[in-house]
Amino acid sequence: MKRGLTFTVITQAQSLNYGEGIGNISELKKLTRADGNMYTFASRQCIRYDIVRLAADVFNWNLQVVDKAKGTIQFRDDMTIKESKEMDLFGYMKTNKKDDKDKGGSLTREATVRLSNLISLEPYRSDMDFLNNKGLADRIGEHPNLANVEQHLSYYTYTVTIDLSKIGIDGEIELSNEERCNRVIEFLEIIKILNRNIRGRQENLSPLFVVGGLYDIANPFFLGRVKIDIDKNGYKINNESIKDVVESTFLGKELKESTYMGIVEDAFTNKNDFEEILGENLMTVDKFFSQLIKGVKEYYEVN
Questions:
Q1: Which one, of 272, 197, 267, lies nearest residue 9 by Cα?
Q2: Is residue 169 situated within a structural domain?
Q3: Phi, psi of 243 (to 5 degrees)
Q4: pLDDT, position 96
Q5: What count of other Cβ atoms lies within 10 Å of the Cβ of residue 39?
């Protein structure tokens, strides 16, 4: 059975994750590459935060599972993956008190849903936004406070990898296949509408492009393989690196047999290139996720 679900997304957004900052300058989180360019990124932790926020709002995920009883903010001892879908999908660590020497080290569970950082596909060019609170200052006859904020509008990419065999299983706990299936489906539905609230803005992180499928192994096949180019016609997705992955094999099977691609119409200029690569497996983004959900139901043998 195909237990490894993975997909890589392209979305478009602006200024998604700020770091520590210097003085009155708010700095975006950035990476520097050997080509001399800087690329902004949003950490996997911030993506997880927004996934959980939306899941609580849309599907009523239980978030009352945290305390600070041992001096560390962490998941409560009396909470398990039965009560917390968040703990099931994203893992947990529960530390013991210093005087609990007989209990050994921390109790941990690895994440069954793996997220990469969300990394820009266009380099950061030092764009800044000058801000002040003149409107408030004028009300009381004071000078406004000043701030400088880094800004970056770009396409971004990130990858999700899920081991379906580990969802809903933790030690002696094993949830029903119906519940395991439902948790994965809820997660996929959230990805379709993912957004981020930041500094008075709501950035739309729903996919413009997505490629992946269900495979015999939980491996991020398309991580680092999705790139964009620009020419006189506009933005296009580099199809060569994706084609190399699609036409590769694992355990004697071509990945093409299990790979699907979703793309928003007119989002990129070279959709026709992928029709030649994937044929009928090229579809809308919504149908792409419907195909994943179908595969998830087949894995868990749920109608």
A1: 267
A2: yes
A3: -60, -40
A4: 74
A5: 20
Q: What are the tokens at 298?
A: 């087949």
Task: Compute, in degrees rounded to 10, the torsion defined by CA atoms 85, 88, 92, 95.
Answer: 90
Q: How confident is the model at residue 119 (pLDDT cuts 50, 70, 90)?
A: very high
Give residue 277's identity as a one-letter amino acid code. I
- Say which residues have a Cβ less than 8 Å from residue 215's Cβ, sequence separation at least 6: 2, 4, 5, 6, 221, 250, 255, 258
Neighbouring-strand partners of residue 236? 229
Is residue 217 one of the residues assigned to a domain? yes
To the nearest whole number, what is the mean pLDDT of the chain?
94
Give the whole-angstrom CA distance, residue 167 versus residue 158. 21
Range of the domain at 205: 4-59+111-125+153-300
For residue range 11-23, what is the model confidence (pLDDT) as tens digits? 999 999 999 888 8
The structure tokens listed for 7 are: 């997909």
* Number of helices (H), then strands (E), in the chain: 7, 24
The end-to-end CA distance of the chain, in Å, is 16
CB distance 92 to 108 below 8 Å: yes
Two tokens, residue 103? 């209990």
Joined together, the tokens standing for residue 138 give 């004028």
Confidence bin at 95 (pLDDT 50/70/90): confident
Q: How many whole angstroms separate alpha carbon 73 and alpha carbon 76?
A: 9
DSSP letter string over 259-302?
Answer: EEEEE-TTSSS-HHHHHHHHGGGEE-HHHHHHHHHHHHHHHHT-
DSSP annotation of 84 reads: -
What pLDDT score does 22 carry?
85
In this prediction the pTM is 0.93
Say whether pLDDT at 296 is over 60: yes
> How many domains does the chain fold into?
1
pLDDT of 104 > 70? The answer is no
Tell me whether residue 86 is in a domain. Answer: no
Query: Residue 69 — pLDDT band, cuts 50, 70, 90?
Result: confident
Maximum Cα–Cα distance across the chain: 75
